[in-house]
């Protein structure tokens, strides 16, 4: 399903239709090639049994074993002494390749740009494709508000181990535009990837059918788990009920939303949670 997104840390799970993918949020569009280890041979919904699509939906008594980092015990941002004029409230979006991170970033920009002073930093390994996509689709009127980082290596390193490049880009945007809200989109990564709290205030993550019960920091510690591309679930035999059950177990019932960003479904809920986190952290004051 969907893949991880982060910064309240909100991981995005690629898609409900992705049996083996890590998109937290079954709402993934079919405009990308994804690893899928069963051959459908047709493009309509099917009702074949679990054995036919390569995975089962039985209740797992102990889904995942990553209970040493439960949602309730996740790292929380430290706002003591935080100067919002140096860097505005930061929303981190993460998740596997193809989970819909850039589509979600675009959708959020189109909504928040009317009510907030915002800017975006994208992360890619060797290109600036995500930045170029956002500029091409006019995510923000001033393209200078959308900046790119080429990590040159594992995407998770730039959002956790060495966050200096992202911090520098964010503080540069803050100095130029005085933003009250900043977005960071990580490069496509795995379930172990998670934002440093020194970088992100709110983290969002996304993934697929078996992803929630596989666990990992992206699933258990994100502030919001988004299962994207839910419109594809019927075509790949993915069960949203199974994903919700497993997500609740792995996240101690922490926030999990099911979306189809491409169709505009469920995005309002994401906006509401981000707005709530921003107001709680800053008192609703702009920089």
From TrEMBL:
Gene Ontology molecular-function annotations: GTP binding; GTPase activity; nickel cation binding
Domain CobW/HypB/UreG nucleotide-binding positions: 90-256
Regions of compositional bias (Basic and acidic residues) in chain numbering: 25-57
Keyword annotations from UniProtKB, A to Z: Chaperone, GTP-binding, Nickel insertion, Nucleotide-binding
Pfam family for this entry, one: cobW
InterPro entries: CobW/HypB/UreG_nucleotide-bd, P-loop_NTPase, UreG
A GO biological-process term: urea catabolic process
Region (Disordered) location: 15-57
Family: Belongs to the SIMIBI class G3E GTPase family. UreG subfamily.
Protein name: BQ2448_364 protein
Organism this protein belongs to: Microbotryum intermedium
